[in-house]
């Protein structure tokens, strides 16, 4: 079901630009993390991410694919206006991923890696709210 916005409640330019900025940042971070987790040799990845050496390699590669899917999903549907509601769903998935990552790192005492998660989480929530409620992008005609 496509959302329509009456002209009187059209979101402001600042909100729209902020949402695009958040989407770009989240997409770049998630895609970069996904590519690294998918393509880097496990020995090199273990040096960058200590937890990666303690998990089965297939799980690390799957997490990379999930990161990549989240990064592409939070940006491309809005950019192309092909099923832009997928952006909201991707943002929800990224929120769940960040909450899981925070719990995982806290359980392992890896507090030093949490700042990135605490930056990405509100950005993902902002995109989820903004593209879902306040400034959705309509599908191409």
UniProtKB/TrEMBL annotation:
Which keywords does the record carry? Answer: Membrane, Transmembrane, Transmembrane helix
Compartmental location? Membrane
The highest taxon in the source lineage is Bacteria
One GO cellular component term of this record is:
membrane
What is the predominant subcellular site recorded for this chain? membrane
Q: Topology in the membrane?
A: Multi-pass membrane protein
Q: Which species is the source of this protein?
A: Trinickia terrae
Q: What is this protein called?
A: DoxX family protein
In terms of InterPro entries, this protein maps to: DoxX
* Pfam families, sorted: DoxX_2
Q: Which residues cross the membrane?
A: 20-42, 62-79, 86-106, 112-129
């Amino acid at each position: 079901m496509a959302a329509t916005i009456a002209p009187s409640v059209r979101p402001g330019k600042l909100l729209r630009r902020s949402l695009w900025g958040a989407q770009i940042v989240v997409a770049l971070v998630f895609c970069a993390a996904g590519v690294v987790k998918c393509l880097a040799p496990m020995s090199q990845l273990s040096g960058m991410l200590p937890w990666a050496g303690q998990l089965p390699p297939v799980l690390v590669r799957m997490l990379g694919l999930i990161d990549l899917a989240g990064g592409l999903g939070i940006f491309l549907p809005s950019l192309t206006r092909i099923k832009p509601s997928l952006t909201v769903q991707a943002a929800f998935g990224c929120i769940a991923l960040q909450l899981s990552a925070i719990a995982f790192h806290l359980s392992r005492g890896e507090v030093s890696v949490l700042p990135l998660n605490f930056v990405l989480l509100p950005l993902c929530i902002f995109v989820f709210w903004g593209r879902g409620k306040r400034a959705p992008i309509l599908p191409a005609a």
